[in-house]
Amino acid sequence: MVPHYVSRSLEPVLGQAVSEFPAVFLTGPRQSGKTTLLLHMFRGQYRYVSVEPPDVRSAAVKDPRGFLKRFPAPVIIDEVQHAPDLIVYIKELIDSKRSRAGQYLLTGSQNLLAAERVTESLAGRAAVLRLLPLSRREAMGQPRRPLAWEARQQLSKSGADRIWSEFLRGGYSELVANRKRDTSRWHSSYIQTYLERDLRSLRQVGDLTQYQIFLRVLAARSAQLLSLTDVARELGVAVNTIKAWLSILEATYQVTVVRPYFANIGKRLVKTPKVYFSDVGTLCHLVGLKDPEHAAAGPMGGAILETAVLSEIIRSLTHQGLDPQVYFWRTAAGTEVDFIVDTGSGLVPLEVKLSSTPRPAMASSIRAFQRDLGSLAMPGYVVHGGDVRLPLGPGATALPFADL
């Protein structure tokens, strides 16, 4: 049975990019729906070829000009990172017909090699877009719904009772479209595939078993300040090894690094960051959670809800074609705001609370941030796991996660 297609927020952005640029490079993690999206929007208008099968990859690597002659534009070339030198020859063809938009639609599940070549070879010729796993609004059939601070009116409330089951599943297309899939088995298979394919094609990791332990150690520290030295000591490996492993996770869209907000950009880069897994289902799987009640009531409950909030913000903004700027805020005295979203016109503070009973005291750190940042600070939100939306005093609103 063909899975039901889930409409994506990126569709209008992608359509516009294809109408304006000779090439579009759609990147994102494996299984996020890149191929499905392109075939849904452009099937019948474009040829399609995947460079992943070994025989096709060999043909593209050995004779790139011949390969592109066999698959002339307009064409979708899937998993182009397996033959990144193709991009140089695509540039050659584009330059001979520069006025034509939408000639090549390229996908890649790694952001390291292929995107670097796109930047170097197709500067000004290619739009680079990211497709992440589904945001909750996409999974709920509301891909155009704005985020809370973008909305002009109060959103309708959704039941909070099912969100923990959704967290365990995560946002990968196959799990959202096919509710009968075994969640744990799918995530286990995904992680194994990721380890075998992406890691080995990026660089020699060495001991894959040790790397799997690293993933679980990192998951247990989700939403905390991350000391690479502590992780290295626990695993018995060098700090530079941990840095390299973390960079691979970032390059393959498996984690999001959140840095502290400082007006001085240099300070943001050197201060201790927090690391979140990009998909909340991946996080739940790595820490061994299979039951929604245990996930909500256990010691990882706060980290899971924070991960879900960050994921929804990142995916929703990314799928609008934007580059999300999300930080956390922490003072020397220990006052902390979980997330600061830089909208370009102001800073939106968000606190995340497990409690379903929001109280004004939960917004105290938001008010401290607003006092310190003055006119830069916008109204803030306490995002919680319940159903209630209500004001928590000046400049702060309690917002159910379902209404984010």
Strand content: 15-25%
Biggest sheet, spatial arrangement of strands: 7-6-8-9-10-11-13-12
Low-pLDDT segments: 153-158
Could you tell me the mean pLDDT? 87
Shape: globular
- Which structural class do you get from the secondary structure elements? alpha/beta
Euclidean distance between termini CA atoms? 33 Å
- Tell me the helix content: 40-55%
Q: Helical element count?
A: 18
Biggest beta sheet attributes: 8 strands, mixed
Oligomer: single chain
Number of strands: 13
Radius of gyration: 22 Å
Detailed description of the structure:
The chain is α/β, with parallel strands linked by helices and 404 residues long. The protein contains 18 helices and 13 strands. The two termini are 33 Å apart.
Condensed summary:
The protein has helices spanning 11-20, 34-42, 54-62, 64-70, 86-96, 113-121, 136-139, 163-169, 173-177, 183-202, 208-220, 228-235, 239-251, 265-270, 280-286, 292-297, 301-318, 364-373, and strands at 23-27, 47-50, 75-78, 104-108, 126-130, 255-260, 274-277, 326-330, 336-342, 347-353, 380-384, 390-391, 396-400.
